[in-house]
Design a protein that fits this description.
It is a single chain. The protein is α/β, with parallel strands linked by helices. The chain has ten helices and eight strands. The chain has an eight-stranded parallel barrel with strand order 1-2-3-4-5-6-7-8, surrounded by seven helices.
């Protein structure tokens, strides 16, 4: 795989709360230069990123309920709707982790479904935070996300101790139907790991150090 081909899998990500306007501009410029699939930023930075990406083919994603997933459904849905209004093509929402660990899948599904509804026509990726879940819970979370109409299931926020794992990506890919895609995110810091995630079934990679990786270096990002 060439660097250009790998770039087409990548959501170039900057979600640190202290990120400056200058850093967001640089993120967008890098995405256009390298041909990344998308840029992913915090909700308050969506209007700015949309302006920088105007006229390019790079998609714009933002996060909802990030990084804990504990906001009420009403707030998550409103946050998603506003991000779409501001120019986001994709929404990466954090699943309600408290409901997930207690196996309350009915409420997990309803939470996701309302965000999916309010985010239309933009697609929704559901962050499972797989490092906090057992394998059976990962399966149930994937099933709830698909039933709720999500377009993607995603491994991690990158803000917890564990990120994407190859075996978990494989499990997620086996669980969802071909209609739902898998995004690996968190801890992807080198070329070999990125390729391993793609081979495991990921069709998108969330990375904050993508430029370093495409240059053959080890990323210092999350």
């Amino acid at each position: 795989m060439t660097p250009q081909e790998l770039a087409g899998y990548i959501d170039h990500t900057l979600l640190k709360p202290e990120a400056s306007a200058r850093q967001i501009k640089q993120l967008c410029e890098e995405a256009v230069e390298w041909g990344f699939y998308a840029v992913c930023v915090q909700p308050c930075r969506v209007p700015q990123a949309a302006e920088y990406l105007a006229g390019s083919s790079v998609r714009l994603a933002s996060v909802v309920g990030f990084p804990h997933g504990a906001n009420t459904t009403f707030i998550k849905a409103a946050e998603a709707a506003r991000a779409v209004q501001d120019g986001a093509h994709e929404i990466d929402m954090v699943m309600n982790l408290g409901w997930a660990v207690q196996d309350d899948w009915q409420n997990v599904e309803a939470d996701i479904a309302e965000v999916v509804r309010q985010a239309q026509p933009s697609l929704v990726k559901v962050i499972l935070e797989t490092g906090l879940l057992s394998d059976p819970q990962i399966v149930s979370a994937c099933q709830a996300a698909e039933a709720a109409g999500a377009a993607f299931v995603k491994t991690s926020t990158g803000f917890h101790n564990s990120g994407a794992e190859v075996r978990v990506v494989e499990l997620m890919r086996r669980t969802v139907s071909p209609r739902v895609q898998v995004k690996a995110s968190g801890g992807i810091r080198d070329w070999d790991t990125a390729l391993a995630m793609i081979r495991a079934g990921a069709s998108r990679l969330g990375m904050s150090g993508a430029v370093q990786i495409l240059r053959g270096q080890t990323s210092t990002g999350y």
